[in-house]
Amino acid sequence: MSRLLAWLGTLPAWCHVLTVAAVPVVELRGAIPLGVHLGLRPLEAMGLALLGNLAPIPVLYYILLPAFRYLRRTRLFRRAVGGYLAHSEKRAAAVKKYGLWGLALFVAVPLPGTGAWTGCLIALLLGYSLRSALAALALGTLGAGLAVTALTVLAGL
Question: How far apart are CA 32 and CA 77, in angstroms?
Fold first, then answer.
């Protein structure tokens, strides 16, 4: 384990930012401050975080819903997946009222549970095409990225 951690420490900052941004829950909300902390310029950290956060979306679009449906049938994940789906379906009802703009606004709010991963699931639940969903998610992620970058700079990280 110590060798793995030592090796990870040798990777450049941009690798860390891209990787952290692609992780659900953390997404760019954690990747931007991390990038700035590792010495990247704020806009550079934001750009890398945007790329890292949006990169998994096309793959997620095709595997997320089937994977959740499968996991919901397993004893180990039934409760967690069921709760996450119920949360997303509730959010989808509010997003549906405003369409793709609602989806972009939902993702733009830089709070836990409102990122591109949940936005992708909501887009799937609402039946949006990949192209439409990706455009809304990109716009929302840009908004969240700008907010997180501004907060990071103001906090002096």
Answer: 30
Instruction: Dihedral sign for Cα 30, 11, 64, 105, please.
Output: positive
pLDDT at 145: 97
* HSE value, Cβ hemisphere, 13 Å, CA-based, for 131: 0
CA distances from 95 to 69, 99, 118, 119, 126 (A): 22, 6, 12, 10, 9
The total number of structural domains in the chain stands at 1
Show the domain range for 99: 2-155
With 0-12 CB in 10 A as exposed, 13-18 as middle and 19+ as buried, what is 12? exposed
**pLDDT for 2-20, tens place per residue?**
776 677 778 899 999 999 9
